[in-house]
Write a structure and sequence with these properties.
The protein contains 10 helices and 8 strands. Strands 5-4-3-6-7-8 form a 6-stranded mixed sheet, sandwiched between helices. It has helices at residues 2-6, 12-24, 27-48, 72-79, 114-130, 157-164, 175-186, 211-214, 234-243, 257-265; strands at 55-62, 91-98, 100-107, 135-141, 145-149, 193-200, 219-225, 248-251.
Length: 268
């Protein structure tokens, strides 16, 4: 079985099958499969996350070679009183990347099979690679919070993937605590915009109402997902996104989580 799976194209199916086989394999095979998962998840994360990310804003600045979108109003204003066009009076629009801080918060309170952990790991890899030029952190949560990557840590994708493959799942759900810890992480960095992305089914079984904490974020996006038969709580998820001035996306299939992360980060 393992030999057949090895020859499949690198993708969600292969990674899920490898995870299932690893769960039942002996120690030698577990180590072999772990190395394969690390390599393939890293590769797939980079592939899904290909392209720029972050928030781009437009500023008005004096002309210099490479800028070709002229701000007509500012240029005419500066040119008043001059008979001939002066270079120093030409103003253009320049697109600059806005330095931001992000934290990804993953609900692992429900017991997930290994293949779902693998998909969550891909999604985390997509998040990290997409934000490779921004400050970003990752945490998982159930009753308590586990910091996977601090904002200050170097962005080494293989290290992050390796840590994610070791996460423990199950237990009650303290969404409020996760949001508070995410805020604490973001406040350590002085950035223009502090953004949280939380992946959860929305069922807060301990810790109290999380909605009030959502309002403290500059922006909080909510990816609502069902981990099993319990479904999700769309009302709580939508309210968190509304209070956090972010987007709420309901994810139908767990396999769609990595693409949903990309969608949020590219503002699509």
């Amino acid at each position: 079985m393992l030999d057949i799976v090895k020859n499949l194209e690198t993708g969600m199916l292969q990674i899920k099958l490898l995870s299932m086989i690893q769960e039942r394999a002996d120690i030698v095979k577990k180590i072999e499969i772990r190395k394969m998962l690390l390599q393939k998840i890293t590769y797939l994360s980079q592939k899904i996350a290909a392209g720029p990310a972050g928030i781009v804003r437009s500023i008005i600045t004096q002309y210099r070679p490479g800028l070709d979108e002229i701000d007509v109003d500012r240029t005419l204003e500066e040119q008043l009183g001059h008979k001939a066009l002066q270079y120093e009076n030409i103003y253009c629009h320049e697109k600059v990347k806005q330095k931001s801080s992000y934290v990804l918060m993953l609900d692992v309170s429900n017991s997930m099979h290994k293949e779902k952990v693998a998909i969550a790991t891909i999604a985390t890899g997509v998040f990290s690679y997409k934000l490779r030029n921004d400050y970003h952190g990752v945490l998982t949560f159930a009753k308590d919070v586990n910091i996977i990557k601090n904002l200050e840590e170097p962005n080494i994708l293989t290290t992050l993937v390796d840590r994610m493959l070791d996460i423990k799942t199950g237990g009650s759900t303290n969404i409020r605590l996760a949001l508070l810890k995410g805020l604490e992480m973001l406040q350590k960095r002085k950035a223009t915009l502090k953004t949280g992305i939380i992946v959860t089914d929305g069922w807060a079984t301990t810790g109290g109402d999380p909605v009030e904490v959502a309002a403290k974020y500059d922006r909080l996006h909510v990816l609502g997902i069902s981990f099993g038969l319990g479904g999700s709580d769309p009302i709580t998820n939508a309210n968190m996104a509304k209070k956090g001035r972010g987007r709420y996306l309901h994810i139908q299939r767990f396999d769609d989580l990595p693409l949903a992360i990309t969608k949020i980060l590219t503002n699509k």
